[in-house]
Design brief:
Largest sheet: none
Number of strands: 0
Number of helices: 5
Order of helices and strands: HHHHH
Distance between the termini: 41 Å
Radius of gyration: 16 Å
Strand content: under 5%
Shape: elongated
Structural class: mainly alpha
Oligomer: single chain
Helix content: 55-70%
């Protein structure tokens, strides 16, 4: 796979992740069992939606020219890896190996 093809796939991935981030609020309203964190009113989901909507806009902007936005792309990748490491995987809590303090 050459660099042109990799760049094309990166653009597609940025568009998909950016659009999904922008679509988080409608997903929470349409499918609350799978996408909503709380039932009833809470400020927490609106805060999360605001953060992810902003991220979605920046990822869609980065899709135009990914090489100019590598720091954003790397920060998003690192965020996903940190969230995956910190997630609860059925009681195994592998996240403790990746953080020094809590």
């Amino acid at each position: 796979m050459n660099d042109t093809q990799r760049l094309k796939y990166l653009r597609v991935a940025l568009i998909i992740v950016g659009a999904t981030s922008l679509g988080l609020y409608p997903l929470m309203m349409l499918l609350p069992s799978g996408w909503s964190w709380n039932s009833g009113y809470s400020d927490y989901p609106l805060m999360i939606v605001g953060i992810y909507a902003t991220l979605g806009v920046f990822l869609l902007m980065a899709a135009r020219n990914p090489l100019d936005h590598l720091s954003l792309i790397r920060a998003r990748r690192d965020h996903v890896l940190a969230a995956a490491a910190d997630s609860d995987c059925g009681g195994c809590s592998i996240g403790i190996f990746f953080r020094s303090t809590r």
